[in-house]
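Here is one chain, start to finish.
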Amino acid sequence: MTATGPLTGQTDPARHTDISAALAVVEEPPFRVPRDRAELHLFLQAALTLEHLTIPPYLTAMYTLPPGTNRPAHYAVRAVVLEEMLHMTLVANLLNATGGTPLVAHSRFVTGYPARLPFSRDKVPVALRHFGTKALDTFLYIERPEYVAEPPGHPSVADDDGWTSIGQFYNTIREGVIRLSRKLGEAELFHGDPARQVGPKDFYNSGGEVFAVTDLASALKALRVITEQGEGAAGGIHDTDDRLFGEVREVAHYFRFNEIRQERSYGPHDTPRSGPTGPAMDVAWQDTYPIDPEAKVAHYPPGSAVRRAADHFNEVYARLLVVLERGYTGDPAVLGAAVPVMLELRDLAEALYRNPHPDPAKRALGLHAAATYEITDRHFTLARDRLSEAPGATALPG
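Its structure:
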């Protein structure tokens, strides 16, 4: 995931005026290249939080599609979600490789929604929206490819006092990794426990995209995968998975979302500027469960089935994050436990979103109940208790 500026004239999501709540603000590292190992860890933890920021909005768009509808769009969004989880894992590998410890299963890690898009000059709200043009406009803004400013300290950004884009942020991490590798020595910088590295056999998405980070070359490769899967490589529309991993050539995240938005696939000779000129994509915008982008569990009547369902969804999502953190900080093999948790989330979502909103006024607007991703410390406690009681729980380190 990277972000820098509009490309094909889609609506600027900052102009959406249906968000009245104050936007949650994600903490950003200082505007400078990381000076030491501790600062590099701060930047990498921020990158981990940033990669996760998009997952609930992307899942919301996918889950609000009634089963069996908009299959091309469903699979496109699902593929992006899995790659964002891949990006989280690669960042965790880089954090572990440099002696850090990923923090995932904590309420400080989970962004409240709607949130302000971090590392951006524009006050763009990232909200939990149902599948539709407003959601796609936000996704395109997050993933958009264009000029990336130089890291802090470069003469070209001498007048800047803050981050301009996610792309600049990742460019800064890359510069910090290179500088610290020279300053400390490659072996000293990448001295983390290799047993914490997640490899292809551990990652539930299978394939060869996940790899251990053990040195400068693999660290830079991880950062390259993260950025190019989002915005494309070398000014094109495709990522580099075919060249790096020998996989099928695919368009990057921005262009997958743009195919849905434009209702047309990219052809073999298309470019970012040409837009998609390939076969039409069948998109039924009306086939979705409309939801309130500012929904909260407190909006549902106490004791109601909808409120219990929304709260239970939050607990299960907390369980997913507990599994991820344990996989990142203990035994990577436990990541296989994420598969049944994700399937449970899918089933809970199908049962939740099809319910008309319990508030009569919102129901009259055609709105439905929704998951809120309000993950609290209570949810993490319940999640850990549930995992400790599950069969095979001994495989999950505490």
